[in-house]
Design goal:
There is one protein chain. The protein is 80% helix and 0% strand. It has a domain of 71 residues: Tetratricopeptide repeat domain (Serine Threonine Protein Phosphatase 5, Tetratricopeptide repeat, Alpha Horseshoe), CATH 1.25.40. With 157 residues, it is mainly alpha-helical.
Length: 157
């Protein structure tokens, strides 16, 4: 079996373990995926996310940094790294990463949500309303696109 196929298989199994809340096994399987393909940035992002969930911030940050080095256009990696900065109470670092995620993908709703979460903690409700309007607009666009694809037969109903 080629290395890439093994990496993908380990990745898929890591996702399955995560869904079953078996985070230790998930980390192990994502680590195997990285071993089989050290350039598979999604494995680093996913393992970093599990580390973040386990409150292993240092390990999470290392994985997000590696994923970004491999793929500087990975909006999710920036967003998750922003969440890690937030856990470290580095709000400026969090915003910098959320902003970078949005520069890469202006329709990446989770980054808007994370910015909103920080802003509402600080009592900045005016800006929060603006952020929520953007999120609602993006969700409406995605629903509309889904309906368009479904009606054209691009998606199974």
């Amino acid at each position: 079996m080629p290395v890439n196929n093994l990496a993908i298989r380990m990745f898929d199994e890591g996702v399955a373990a995560y869904v079953k809340n078996d985070f230790k096994k998930s980390v192990l399987l994502f680590s195997r995926a990285v071993k089989y393909n050290p350039k598979f940035d999604l494995s680093y992002v996913s393992r970093g996310f599990v580390y973040l969930k386990l409150n292993k911030i240092k390990e999470a940050m290392a994985d997000f940094d590696r994923a970004i080095k491999l793929n500087p256009h990975n909006a999710r990696a920036y967003h998750l790294r922003g969440l890690a900065y937030e856990k470290l109470e580095d709000i400026a670092g969090a915003f910098q990463n959320f902003d970078r995620a949005l520069e890469i993908d202006p329709e990446y709703g989770p980054a808007y949500h994370s910015r909103d979460s920080i802003l509402s903690k600080d009592g900045n409700t005016d800006y929060t309303i603006e952020e929520l309007d953007i999120i609602n607009h993006l969700m409406a666009m995605r629903v509309s696109r889904f309906d368009d694809h479904r009606q054209s037969g691009d998606l199974a109903a």
